[in-house]
Design goal:
The chain has about 325 residues and is mainly beta. Helices cover about 5% and strands about 60% of the residues.
């Protein structure tokens, strides 16, 4: 009896101590997104099983001895459900960071994660992680290493500001990118029940123009995003101007997408265009899709997409059916 009582007391103390330490988490979470696709690039017509940025991660927050201050962390990896291989790796790093958060002051994090400009996209991209993802025609979809970011608390429950700096870390003699903030990414967002809007800017971010063959460069990018939700309808748009910091290359991009939600069904469509000023190349994206919700975190889907380059005379067409399951514990 005494032994049982001691175990109960010890267990109660342990649980109390853990609750005092853990503000939120750790939470194990992930997503399985798999599709069976026919991909046709004009030269070959192939059926593939695709793992579309399936992932596994852990995140959480710890209380510190300073009142209201939490130590936050996240470690997320992409997993390839189709063949277990992502560019030679079983686990490929996605968003990973550590930092601090205070409800009235905001959050400060450091690591490797999506830039504020990429995050400012919100959920306008109706085909995120699929072959019709906007990253196929637009620059700016960057997950950057060695990045430090401050994010404000939500002002008036609607407005948010994020600013990130990236040191160049070049150590060679005469290096140009050896300062504390050789690249900067920032965003201003507004969101309520019906509307999401953002404006974001990247300065000297390492990237490449999608409609220009100049290769990797440092880009300045301006992106504006808007999305309206009315009853069962949603429609969103993106305008973006991307230019080389030290070159003539410049891309102008537009995207319009929308969806109709009918109980468990979601009918969606997306059109995008990127025009290169120096090469006169044009990239176009067109996609149609249908989702069916099996549960709040599970769905099956089908979609068709086409990404076309005008001057290069290339056309990538995809038809796919798949499923997405989200989980956490």
């Amino acid at each position: 009896m005494k032994k049982c009582l001691s175990m109960l007391v010890f267990g109660g103390v342990a649980v109390t101590s853990m609750n005092a330490l853990a503000a939120d988490g750790p939470v194990l979470y992930g997503k399985a997104n798999v599709s069976y696709e026919n991909q046709d690039d004009g030269n070959s017509d192939t059926w593939k099983l695709q793992s579309n940025a399936s992932r596994l991660g852990v995140k959480g927050a710890l209380n510190t001895d300073l009142e209201g201050l939490e130590a936050i962390y996240k470690a997320e990896f992409e997993i390839s459900i189709d063949d277990g291989d992502k560019d030679g790796q079983t686990f490929s790093q996605r968003n990973i960071y550590g930092g601090f958060k205070q409800a009235n002051l905001g959050a400060l994090i450091a690591g490797k994660f999506d830039t504020p400009l990429k995050s400012a996209q919100g959920k306008v991209d109706q085909f995120n992680d699929l072959q019709a993802d906007i990253k196929n025609i637009m620059a700016g979809e960057n997950r950057t290493s060695n990045i430090v970011q401050y994010s404000s608390p939500r002002l008036f429950d609607a407005v948010g500001v994020s600013v990130a700096v990236i040191p160049g870390e070049e150590q060679s003699a005469g290096a140009e990118n050896d300062g504390p903030a050789d690249a900067v990414s920032s965003s201003f967002t507004f969101e309520n029940d019906r509307f999401y809007g953002s404006i974001a800017y990247d300065s000297d971010i390492e990237d490449s123009l999608e409609a220009d063959s100049s290769g990797d460069s440092r880009l300045n990018i301006l992106r504006t995003v808007g999305k309206v939700r009315l009853s069962n309808f949603e429609i969103g748009a993106v305008y973006q101007l991307a230019e080389e910091s030290d070159g003539p290359g410049e891309d102008t991009s537009y995207l319009v997408g929308g969806a109709v939600n009918l109980e468990r069904w979601k009918i969606k469509a997306q059109y995008g265009l990127t025009e290169a000023e120096t090469t006169n190349e044009e990239l176009t994206l067109l996609a149609l899709g249908l989702d069916y919700k099996l549960a709040s975190k599970s769905k099956v889907y089908a979609y068709v997409s086409q990404v076309e380059a005008d001057l290069a005379d290339s056309e990538d067409s995809t038809f796919g059916v798949g499923f997405e399951h989200k989980f956490s514990m």
